[in-house]
Amino acid sequence: MSTDPLVVFTPSGKRGHFPKGTPVLTAARQLGVDLDSVCGGRGICSKCQITPSYGEFSKHGVTVQDDALSEWNSVEQRYDDKRGLKPGRRLGCQATIQGDVVIDVPAESQVHKQVVRKAASARVIEMAPATKLYFVEVQEPDMHEPTGDLERLITALTEQWDLDAPTADLRVLSKLQIALRKGNWQVTVALHQDHNSAVPKIIDVWSGLHEAGIYGLAIDLGSTTVAAHLTDLATGEVVASSGIMNPQIRFGEDLMSRVSYAMMNKGGDQEMTRAVRDAINALTTEIAQEAEIDANLIVETVFVCNPVMHHLLLGIDPVELGQAPFALATSKSVSLTARDLDLDAMNGSAQIYVLPCIAGHVGADAAAVALSEEPGKSKDLVLVVDVGTNAEILLGNTERVLACSSPTGPAFEGAQISSGQRAAPGAIERIEINPETKEPRFRVIGSDLWSDDEGFAEATATTGITGICGSGIIEAVAELRLAGLMDDSGLIGSHEATGTPRCVPEGRTHAYVVYDGSAEGGPRITVTQGDIRAIQLAKSALYAGARLLMDEMNVDKVDRVVLAGAFGAHISSKHAMVLGMIPDVPLDKVQSAGNAAGTGARIALCNIDARREIEKTVGEITKVETAIEPKFQDHFVAANAIPHKTDPFPELNKIVTLPHVSFNTGGGDGGGEGGRRRRRRG
Amino acid sequence: MSTDPLVVFTPSGKRGHFPKGTPVLTAARQLGVDLDSVCGGRGICSKCQITPSYGEFSKHGVTVQDDALSEWNSVEQRYDDKRGLKPGRRLGCQATIQGDVVIDVPAESQVHKQVVRKAASARVIEMAPATKLYFVEVQEPDMHEPTGDLERLITALTEQWDLDAPTADLRVLSKLQIALRKGNWQVTVALHQDHNSAVPKIIDVWSGLHEAGIYGLAIDLGSTTVAAHLTDLATGEVVASSGIMNPQIRFGEDLMSRVSYAMMNKGGDQEMTRAVRDAINALTTEIAQEAEIDANLIVETVFVCNPVMHHLLLGIDPVELGQAPFALATSKSVSLTARDLDLDAMNGSAQIYVLPCIAGHVGADAAAVALSEEPGKSKDLVLVVDVGTNAEILLGNTERVLACSSPTGPAFEGAQISSGQRAAPGAIERIEINPETKEPRFRVIGSDLWSDDEGFAEATATTGITGICGSGIIEAVAELRLAGLMDDSGLIGSHEATGTPRCVPEGRTHAYVVYDGSAEGGPRITVTQGDIRAIQLAKSALYAGARLLMDEMNVDKVDRVVLAGAFGAHISSKHAMVLGMIPDVPLDKVQSAGNAAGTGARIALCNIDARREIEKTVGEITKVETAIEPKFQDHFVAANAIPHKTDPFPELNKIVTLPHVSFNTGGGDGGGEGGRRRRRRG
């Protein structure tokens, strides 16, 4: 038995004997304990903080003496004086082993920190980012050994960090000499290890110990909105979330009209490419300002998007995606630098990763949903619906996963709706219509009160009542049906037929007045027949896609439904089922996943293994093409009606509000709906 | 013994037995015979032409029957009808083996064509370019197998050409879909295999069989001039050569004044970077126009340059190169794409290769000279002097190679000389001064006549007599010394002292009038005392550098001297030695190597193994730093004088004109002096 002291690390439980005088960091490394260090054991980065258990006898079978570690030293004292160490903490690189000891590695000292998502599923993101910081001391130049500064930096990295020799981005070369001299031959580099390449790459360099951190953007590039999460690449914390409208909307509201624009206008694709890249640049600048960081610290960006946006982002004419056989230019993941895409608001050497596409109509956004929701790991048969301008639909279990995309259009997002608006303060988001009186009551974003609650007028005085957002219009249509104001085919009854003056003529059809503020100079908010038709088309497309996958899977029902999408978290499941958006399942089997595509982007941003995983998974998903499948048309037509049924959940005669679930890292809301996150536009 | 037919290939002599019906191309590939093919045996590229030897009995021990190959087929007939095949030629992919046969592979059908340089040494460049063309047939897309077009192209390349799976440049993605469809799923790709990377890269794609070829630029980026050779990457032929002035001259004539400019002016380095990149873009456009090719066909560019130009090209502030220890930002070779350097006149995905630097003062140009002149393979002790604004000096043999750089300034190139000019028609390039009469006679570029020959006036009527170029001023100074018109210290004597009215007062000193055309409104061309001083400084620097290397090597003399540089080929060796530019050696031991740095660039452009070689060689060269070596100053001062000696080569009382040696590939002059090649500027 070894006479060297025994060291036990918690929480890993890893243990081993080490000679007296071995630094704790060295012992941790030799045992493969997950203990961070950026400065490589020089006592300046403080990432290797540990909590030794002194005097806790017989813990983990180890009898610990008070002198189990070396005495507090001057490096620790200096650090404590300058920045403060929590009581009981030591620096792992300074404290050396003198006797048997139990050493706890606190969560923030672990490299592979776990980021908890506040989601229905308790899934966590383990930090394993592609880009990490390394502090090195570089040999000074010597006229008699005329190697370049870069070559000496590479030698330092390989020797001090046991890394494979990296290459360097050209931009690094122009900064390197100043950084080395300013830092007195000590620099911190950001090193990117692409999971498909053997050679790491230096993408930035700072003099001395770089303490301002590095960041990544997870961008969900939708047809209508572009949403970004700015993430600390060391901790995984989302430090800011922001979104803007996709400026391509001026070329066409839905994807096919943008493809048409590219076909009909020479250079139209390049025009749209420039528009979206400009928008991403603007968003990058804004989100960095919001988080009060230098945008040059953004060294990685992950994109998820549908195939048309994918092509337009990359500068590829999307024309082939508008016609069978819907051939993608490339289906695999794409790795680039920001410079390649003219994304010059972030670090020019920032590494861009675009998730793989599943097929010509099922894009990297669907892949991101698959990464986030993992239908292929579900024992139940789960239907994942990511509602947006296009709905991405996944159906599967551990046996098999199917995917399709369905063109729902922008109605669910409040667009093409007469009183529709984006989810923002003042927008009606919840509606109830009393089946007896046919009178509505509603709630607007920005207040928790219902319109018939006391104090509602005061509470909404600043925002006003401005329109109806996506979740509001879904509830409105479902409530019209439940209140008997609308028939199976979706026709709103007349004042005479319904007995309420809220049903008013509107051209040849009728509309239902939800709110009339015109006397006070405010809007008159109605649900028109046109609105109903738009919602019917959207919900039919969604339902038909789901049915098509169920046919393919040869099932009549699913075990559970996950509603995802930028506003998926805010859809009332009950109303979605009344409307026939999704197949009927028990209400407790409907989960909200928030912005699952955005979550998938964040996972890929924070964990390089997830990139490998999704690249493999995508190849295993069976893709169903809605556009050429005759059964899709049949299902679409059949789904158009809103069958007269009594409230399917009479026991829930109050609106069931699902928790507004989104993932979070302990900071701000990282993945909520557009309206809940701070609006950045305008 | 095999009963299968025996096939012998010439000139390789490779032989083997193959079953009847084997295509000749297949047999060649199996034997490793160097037989080209771009279309992969589809009978459309004609690169695999062969000449079978019918009826030549007992050649190479093979008795050949007339029916040794299959009959001329319809594919060959179609090709012959459309483009014509030379008599006796067959297509190797169509003709199949039917009996014993001897098959000759003509030079133009070999992949590794040899490019003969018309140089003193019979060295040839073997073609092994990094970028080659491959023709493939790609699987059409299938909705039920939703792979991207790129993925199917990669599959085709790996299956049809047995290549490792390549990546693709982003630009390729935007062209690929159109190219595939236009070419009916047949495309030609340009594939680049970097010698330091395991993964090949698709850098361009064309529909169908691309017959316009691909090209490379070998660029010698000098302080004063930028010279480029446009080279066919399939044949190695130089199809155009062109040069322009380096526009950085306006920031400083020599390197150190440019480094000072960068130090003294904020953003000055970036200003110079833009200037030189703009110049390269202009040169690229011009050279492509001259060769009548699409500049997008330029898919590779190799740069050689001194360290300051190297840094300014790459966008690195050269300030560190202006002070000890002269640390390079990077000393290794640099591989990039054209886009990275804003070189947008050529193909945006063109691959850039910058040769490695030897040290802070000894750059990639010196490395290129080493690659071209191979001092390390010489049994003799050879001194290689590349004369430019900076002289790169190499001294070595198989034992050891030393290198240094010496700041000669631009005087040797006709700059800073009162009547100096670039080597161009009208410039005086040769001078003799009669030691008796003290009268000069001269020759100008553009005419072979001496000024005292009959018809000289007529022959030079169009060009006029405009100034003195670099080789002219060297001869003028040496002849002044030989004619006794100038003393050891370089002082020109007065009219009285010399007895010739051509020695005229010029301020406090004297000048020698070479030509006076002022009566006819032409120039008065003199050699002034200031000119002598400039040449003295330049030659002292050059000589001192050579001496320093000889000291380091511990030798007093060298076996041979190679004069290189843009105008190295045009310096009279005799006058160079009279002047004391180079150590004395027998006159037949002085060779001209033309633009050796440019040749090195061409070698690296045409042969990927040469890149590996020079990267290794550079590490083995011992570098001597002139700037800090006290002995350099001693040698410099000592070399200032022009000792009175009689003509060292009295038997050569006529000027010995060395052959204007330059390498060539059978086309135009590929590497001559600036004045001889067509001037592109203005």
Anisotropy-based shape of chain A: elongated
Radius of gyration of chain A: 29 Å
Low-confidence stretches of chain A: 116-122, 649-682
- Can you count the beta strands of chain A? 29
**Order of neighbouring strands in the sheet with most strands of chain A:** 14-13-12-15-17-16
Oligomer category: homodimer
Strand fraction band of chain A? 15-25%
Helix content of chain A: 25-40%
Overall CATH class of the domain at 365-407 and 535-638 in chain A:
Alpha Beta
The mean pLDDT of chain A is 86
CATH architecture of the domain at 365-407 and 535-638 in chain A: 2-Layer Sandwich
Summing up helix and strand content along with how strands pair, one would put the structural category of chain A as alpha/beta
Biggest chain-to-chain interface with counts: A-B, 46 and 46 residues
Which terms summarize this structure?
16 helices; alpha/beta; homodimer; six-stranded mixed β-sheet; Ubiquitin-like (UB roll); 29 strands; 682 residues; Nucleotidyltransferase, domain 5
